[in-house]
Amino acid sequence: MRVFPWIFVLLTASCVSSFADLATAAEPREPAKLTHVVSEDYTQPPSPQRAIRSLFSNNQDRVYAARQRVARASYVASKVQAGDVQPVDYSVLSNAAGEQYMEGEIVEGTIIEGDVMMPGHATAGIYEQGMHVDGGCTSCQGGGCESCETCGDSCNTWCVPICFSLSLEDLSVRAGVEGFKGPLNRGVDGSFGFLYGINWGTPFFGKSSGLGFQLGINGSSTNMHEASFTDKSRNQFFMTAGLFRRVDWGWQGGVVLDYMSDDWYYSLTSSQIRGELSWKFQSRNEFGFWFTASDHVSTVNALITPQGSSTPLTISQNYQPNNMFAFFYRTPLDICGGEMRFSGGWTEDRMGLLSADMNIPVTQCLAVETNFLYLIPRDSNNRPTPYVDETWNVGFNLVWYPRACSAASAGKSYYRPLFNTATNGTFSMYPTN
């Protein structure tokens, strides 16, 4: 398939870049000579110039960013040593070795010195989640649900009778536009309209488990001015739920269930399993593999009126979700706190796959999220009209973080959703007959 040489070139280049970053990260640091760095105000949102520059950051930029984090850690340590703040034991992170936070201080980018940072540890090494610690709330740990009731809003959690923590820190709300096309468009008109939804992540029965749970819902309204073969608008509903695990270094992954309801000149429902597994390097770059899998077949029975014809045409056809398989490379955007991912692979129906997605903070509470996917149809005697099978999706969304109110910090939380809620870019259908 013609797309595969380009995929190999992309993966090879990404591999070389990752190992170069890993070697750079191993260089010794001298935080004592970087005291001027801590004078910068890290609570301010990134400027547009910094956000754009982060897309093309080189090794020197990443070394500078790493030195900034080390300098901030040295500054906090000097405050503790001077007695300006009193360290307290934060019981939520009792499983980590030797972590201590300052009461009433905002800690962001602080290095937590355990014995050794080991692969797969989510609370050792560099902990990058900015958070406020006041020592008064145990988030359902130890004191039971009564502790959350006494803390009030400072807890940022809700507790149901079984004491399941419902944290709102990793809640995001998105709205934007999307354009897409697939076999259900019958090779004629594409679909364009608006996307809106929420995505939420939380520790799964406490942070001691190391697992996160996520739940997301998306709605889509497209073809609002009809199509050439039908006078109906298209409305879709997506839901995603599952488990995941994030780490500083080592194996990271998860699995979710996607559900879709699609109402146009037909009505169909379908579901699929989506998962990913990746190895995260100490330089925080990732190489991994993601997939979608389903054998759910939906039958479309409908009447359409082809363009230029006055006679309705009866359609009866079976559709199934595309089973997709792709390798990916994901990297953080050190300057602005976002991340981007590039993927290349194939489908069970032997189509090529190219995709990318990106999240870039633009203010304290807002981020821009973009994505695209293209399934390249194959030419064969069995597929005389490959343009009918052509599948693509392009999305542009504005994401709001209502509780964390720091788009950059939200991008560093261990319990932010690992998967985006399903859209037409991760959930597409193809005909089976």
Description of the molecule:
The relative contact order is 0.15. With 433 residues, this protein is α+β, with helices and mostly antiparallel strands. Helix content is 16%, strand content 38%. The N terminus is likely disordered. The strands form five sheets. A twelve-stranded antiparallel barrel has the order 7-8-9-10-11-12-13-16-17-18-19-20. Strands 14-15-21 form a three-stranded antiparallel β-sheet, with no helix packed on it. The protein is built from six helices and 21 strands. The radius of gyration is 24 Å and the shape is elongated. A hairpin with a 4-residue loop joins strand 16 and strand 17. The longest helix is centred in the N-terminal third of the chain and has 24 residues. Helix 1 packs parallel to helix 3. It has two domains: 129 residues, no CATH class; 262 residues, monomeric porin ompg (Porin, Beta Barrel), CATH 2.40.160.40.
Write the layout of secondary structure elements.
Elements: H1 4-25, H2 48-54, H3 59-82, E1 87-88, E2 101-102, E3 106-107, E4 111-112, E5 125-126, E6 131-132, H4 145-151, E7 170-181, E8 191-203, E9 212-222, E10 234-245, E11 250-263, E12 267-280, E13 286-293, E14 298-304, E15 313-321, E16 324-333, E17 338-347, E18 352-361, E19 366-376, H5 386-389, E20 391-400, H6 407-410, E21 429-431
Antiparallel strand pairs: 1-2, 3-6, 4-5, 7-8, 7-20, 8-9, 9-10, 10-11, 11-12, 12-13, 13-16, 14-15, 15-21, 16-17, 17-18, 18-19, 19-20
Helix pairs in contact: 1-3
Signal peptide: 1-25
Keywords: Signal
Pfam families: DUF6666
